[in-house]
Amino acid sequence: MKKTILTMAALTLLAASANAADEKGSVNFSGNLKGLKDTLIVITPTEQGMKRDTVLTKDGQFNFTVNVEKPMDIYAYTPGTLRQEERIGFSAIAVPGEKAVLTGDLNSAYYYSGSKFYEQFNEADRANDAAMKPLSDLMASLEKRMANGEKQDVVSKEYEEKAPALQKQATEAMVDFIAKHPDSEGAAAFIPRLDNIDAMKKAAASLSDNIKNGRMHDYYQGVIDEIEKQEQAEQASAKKQAAGTVAPDFTLNDLNGKPLKLSSFKGKYVLLDFWGTWCVWCVRGIPKMKEYYNKYKGKFEILSIDCNETQDKWKAGVKKYQLPWKHVYQPRTGAVQTTDLYGITGFPTKILVGPDGKIVKTVVGEDSAFYTFLDETFGKK
User: Fold this and answer.
1) Would you call 376 exposed, middle or buried from its count of C-beta atoms within 10 A (0-12, 13-18, 19+)?
2) Which of 53, 112, 200, 210 has the fewest CB atoms found within 10 Å of its own CB?
3) DSSP 147-216
4) 242 Cβ partners below 8 Å, 6+ apart?
């Protein structure tokens, strides 16, 4: 199966060399991959932050070494990929003291060999490819149909109808594979790649004590812990944002530096708009917000709460986009943190508060359904 290049939002970079993996903590990667260009940027997490080094390749051949203290994901991309001009490169798990050899084609399939860990990892990778094949075939078929002119909504509907069952089938197959290979570090490395946290926990529980207590534990358990933490945060947010909940009162300064209290809007509908000029989707939604502000002017107010930027950028943004409604500023370290009060986890978040001071509806992200809701709410009033 063609490998998917992972998102680059959380990547950090590490110096690479062409030395063999002969010291503790070093991992050597070498091989021949069709589709490579003449330069790779090797990427890996470090405590210091972002660091990069250029590795030269020739005729698809490469050789570099990274130094890591524990198993972690690394990435090797072309400069053009980092500039989002192409998608050429590969991702891999780096395990201290091991040696990986990669062969194959970046555009179809590539394989691992080398030390024992990477032999095990390759076996798990082949099992994963086989498990994912029905879903991959469906996606390839739908992409071909769209390329031939079939309507996107028809293709999307079929995907939504068939994909969940195929993904479930693939996940169950990999959970079963891991359970049948309880002593394989390579199999354990696939736990974070599973589709849901329940599957991750089930797979982790099937591992032998030797693997559970070994060097792969933190690699997969860290992902499980982070997902659980995120789910708990989402549940807490949903509770704070639920319809019928009394909207917490707060006071923040407006554009003129004067305090503005949420409760001063009591008796009116007020839309709390959590945003920032740094938020692409917030900015993209401004024209629609203006349209509906003018459409139902007098039936509701908008109070935009600027988050995660300086006052100067906030004020400049309000002026630049000519936003005609009320605005307040949320300092990063202020005593009042509305993002905590309302459990804000994404931007933009829009919360409509009713005349009685209770939350009517919350919408996260720029969603056309929100404006349909406004029509349903205010169009009849």
Assistant:
1) exposed
2) 210
3) HTT--HHHHHHHHHHHHHHHHHHHHHHHHHHHHH-TT-HHHHTTGGGSSSHHHHHHHHHTS-HHHHTSTT
4) 359, 362
Question: Residue 315 and residue 328: Cα distance in Å, rounded?
Answer: 10
Tens of pLDDT along the chain (381 residues) come to 444 433 333 333 333 333 333 446 899 999 999 999 999 999 988 777 776 889 999 999 999 999 999 999 999 999 999 999 999 999 999 999 999 999 999 988 999 999 999 999 999 999 999 999 999 999 999 999 999 999 998 999 999 999 999 999 999 999 999 999 999 999 999 999 999 999 999 999 999 999 999 999 999 999 999 999 999 988 999 999 999 999 999 999 999 999 999 999 999 999 999 999 999 999 999 999 999 999 999 999 999 999 999 999 999 999 999 999 999 999 988 778 999 999 998 999 999 999 999 999 999 998 888 999 999 999 865
Reduced 3-state DSSP string for 250-272: CEEEECCCCEEEHHHHCCCCEEE
On whether the pTM is more than 0.70, the answer is: yes
Q: Distance of CA 141 to CAs 60, 128, 195, Å? A: 30, 20, 22
Question: Alpha-carbon distance 218 to 220, whole Å?
Answer: 6
Per the listing, tokens 């555009």 go with 107
Q: How many CA atoms lie within 13 A of 343 on its CB side?
A: 18
Q: Which residue has the tokens 């990477």?
A: 118
Residue type for 246, please? V
- Cα angle: 372, vertex 350, 260; to 5 degrees: 130
User: Residue written as tokens 């594979």?
Assistant: 177
Which tokens belong to 283? Answer: 């900015």
CA distance 102 to 81: 20
Task: Return the number of other C-beta atoms located less than 10 Å from residue 357's C-beta.
Answer: 16
